[in-house]
Design brief:
Helices cover 40% and strands 19% of the residues. The chain has 238 residues and is of the alpha/beta class. It has a single domain (4-237), classed as Rossmann fold, CATH 3.40.50. An eight-stranded mixed sheet has the order 1-7-8-6-5-2-3-4, with helices on both faces. β2, α1 (27-36) and β3 (40-47) form a beta-alpha-beta unit. The relative contact order is 0.21.
Length: 238
């Protein structure tokens, strides 16, 4: 596998994910590089991840996971973290989801958007859950919808003018990556701290070797890109 280097001639990005922690399995490492270079990066989470901790009621898990996401985002230089309030585990495909995401894109006005893969697996036999698949495709559609004033015209009534300057949508965690971004050890360390900030969630799923997982992925990405360490993405140009 040989990857292209991801375009970086932009100044403002938006990362959209289904749950707190989705961005921390790799994308946050790249975010640490970009914020360190002065780029503006914001996070939008579709849900609060309230169904993600077995034994902890959603009313308790939701606020806890929101705070873990804010803490993790801060580790990689992200200060803007928003939650859309959709229901964890049952994100529904359809026009309402596309409109909700198009509204977010119009509000933040990014040049590039990052999200999690919509593919059936992350590679191998690990099945990718519905929320990730549904949201990943909806983000692609919504980024195009955001630029067309005749799609969801009620957004105009809300004061959200069209934004057609999203040039690229890139998906992390894809089993079919096309691009990569070289990162340094300091960015990897920040990404590790970002995922470790989700301590209660990780405990709830039985724990994991965060450093080993992220370091291994970055080394494999680097091998594909021709660099010591890299984060990979499947990129689409709009």
């Amino acid at each position: 596998m040989s990857l292209e280097r991801i375009p970086e001639d932009w100044s403002r990005a938006l990362c959209i994910a289904a749950h707190p922690d989705d961005l921390e399995y790799g994308a946050a490492i790249a975010v640490a590089r970009w914020t360190g270079e002065g780029k503006e990066v914001g996070y939008v989470l579709a849900t609060s991840g309230e169904a993600g901790i077995d034994g902890l009621h959603p009313d308790e898990a939701g606020p806890l996971r929101e705070q873990e996401e804010r803490d993790g985002a801060a580790e990689v230089g992200v200060q803007t973290v928003e939650f859309l309030g959709l229901t964890d585990g049952v994100i529904e495909d359809g026009l309402e989801l596309r409109k909700t995401l198009a509204r977010a894109v119009r509000r933040h006005r990014p040049e590039v958007v990052f999200t999690l893969t919509h593919r059936l697996t992350f590679g191998g036999y690990s099945f990718n859950m519905s929320d990730h698949r549904v949201l990943g495709l909806a983000v692609l559609d919504a980024c195009r919808d955001a630029g067309n004033r005749w799609i969801f015209p009620d957004l105009l009534d809300e004061g959200h003018e069209p934004w057609g300057d999203v040039r690229m949508v890139a998906l992390s965690g894809s089993p079919e990556p096309t691009h990569g971004v070289e990162v340094q050890a300091e960015h990897l360390d920040a990404g590790i701290r970002s995922l470790e900030a989700h301590a209660r969630y990780l405990e709830g799923i039985g724990g994991m070797d965060v450093r080993g997982f992220l370091t291994g992925a970055a080394e494999r990405g680097g091998e594909a890109l021709g660099a010591p360490l890299a984060v990979t993405f499947e990129a689409y140009l709009l």
